[in-house]
Specification:
Helices cover 75% and strands 3% of the residues. By secondary structure, it is mostly helical.
């Protein structure tokens, strides 16, 4: 309940700041701070989800049979794969998700005329996105689609260039319109890889291993004579299997909530982009090349702006529409955020 109240306060402050903000006022600073708290909360949950790429693999190890030398060897190979493949992939998935929360923070700061910051190194982001390859079965992996990698790198360049240019005034509309296409492609890639590789790959493998393990011992129990002892053993086995399966199902719920949040965030961003480009499906993006160019040409002292093909000032009608879009977004993601958080706590 306290988290729900924080979300309501945050969205009220954000909507208010968009309507009555003036650079440097306490209300706009507080709005950005509240948005930062929300982004940090979401980032913490996505970190836990990314870590489960490794943790699920480790949980699965305990359900290997150890009654033969072959099964022992299979368990040792699986453990090595967890450390060699899943562990570095979890770190790369963290970086991939952090790019989204960094971008959300940047948009909030632009909304309140604050300075955009970006702590990640571009080379690190590129490396993580290029190498993100989630193991889905023995010898098989699923990577982030190449167009999603390109979209993510474009977003990282955008953040880096705005941060190094220290430019902030009146750029919210241009920022949202320029980044909409790469943001859509990137978030679609994240949804795809977490759905296919994490839910339908890693978690399905863990669930299969758990079920196979307990089915094996259930079959052994059925060979025993009927009686109270066998009944007690079956009940204990049932309890143990439920306790082993439940965390997998909870992680599935968390991942589905994550995918929904990413999708709804993407849709909301698209709504704002269309609004800020006067409803055009193909707005003039000529100024956007300034923000997605070669980062090697940037120095910290550089100051630049785009060609300003967009009118930077928000009209009253736009402000009202933005407020409605944000409030609708709140109502959609609030239960999903809670679902994700609660599922990852269990």
């Amino acid at each position: 309940m306290r988290f729900q109240k924080k979300l309501k306060v945050y969205f009220s402050l954000l909507a208010s700041s968009l309507i009555i903000s003036s650079c440097g006022t306490s209300s706009t600073i507080q709005s950005a701070q509240k948005f930062g708290e929300l982004a940090s909360r979401f980032e913490e949950n996505t970190n836990n989800l990314a870590d489960d790429i490794y943790n699920s693999c480790i949980r699965k190890i305990q359900f290997f049979q150890v009654d033969t030398s072959e099964s022992n060897e299979a368990r040792d190979v699986a453990l090595k794969d967890c450390n060699d493949l899943n562990k570095p992939t979890a770190r790369q998935a963290r970086d991939a998700n952090k790019l989204v929360t960094d971008y959300i923070r940047a948009i909030a700061k632009l909304a309140s005329d604050d300075v955009v910051s970006f702590d990640n190194e571009l080379d690190k982001v590129k490396e993580s996105l290029d190498n993100l390859s989630i193991p889905i079965s023995s010898g098989n992996t699923l990577s982030l689609p190449s167009n999603a990698v390109d979209g993510g790198i474009s977003i990282a360049k955008f953040l880096f260039r705005w941060a190094t240019a220290d430019f902030r005034e009146g750029v919210l509309k241009e920022a949202v319109v320029c980044t909409d296409k790469p943001f859509q492609v990137y978030t679609e890639g994240l949804k795809f890889v977490f759905d296919e590789a994490y839910i339908n790959g890693i978690l399905d493998q863990e669930l299969f291993r758990v079920q196979s393990y307990y089915n094996y011992y259930a079959a052994l129990l059925r060979q025993n004579p009927d009686g109270p002892a066998r009944d007690r053993a079956f009940r204990q086995l049932q309890t143990e299997s439920f306790n082993a399966i439940q965390p997998v199902l909870e992680r599935q719920d968390a991942a589905l909530a994550y995918i929904s949040i990413i999708g709804k965030t993407s849709n909301t961003h698209s709504e704002l982009a269309k609004l800020f480009s006067d409803g055009e499906d193909s707005p003039d993006l000529s100024s956007c090349s300034t923000y997605f160019g070669d980062d090697s040409s940037i120095s910290v002292s550089t100051q630049f702006v785009g060609q300003k093909t967009l009118n930077s000032e928000l009209t009253i009608d736009e402000l009202i529409t933005v407020k409605k879009i944000i409030l609708d977004y709140q109502e959609e993601i609030e239960p999903l955020l809670i679902q994700m958080e609660e599922s990852l706590e269990r």
